[in-house]
């Protein structure tokens, strides 16, 4: 029974230490990311190359088939 405690306790302490380390390092990285790259909410802008291609041809409306033939 003593051998189980000797093997298990260091593993438990290591897992706890690893968990706290990942938590605090991840929290610091997230706070740094928020400071450097602010989040913007809204409609995403299309890429510049796609705007020129869509402006030349009018968009056709897309209709979903009603499947009335299957009834």
Overview of this structure, please?
The protein has 71 residues and is an all-alpha fold. The protein has a domain at 7-33. The chain has helices spanning 2-36, 48-56. It is elongated, with a radius of gyration of 28 Å. It starts with a helix and ends in a 15-residue tail after the last helix. Residues 46-71 are annotated as: Disordered. Residues 50-61 have a biased composition (Low complexity). Keywords: Membrane, Transmembrane, Transmembrane helix. The chain crosses the membrane at residues 6-26.
Strand fraction: under 5%
N-end to C-end Cα span: 72 Å
Shape: elongated
| Overall average pLDDT | 78
Q: Which sheet architecture does the biggest sheet show?
A: none
- The DSSP helix count reads 2
**Which structural class do you get from the secondary structure elements?**
mainly alpha
Give the SSE order as H and E letters.
Answer: HH
Let me know the number of strands.
Answer: 0
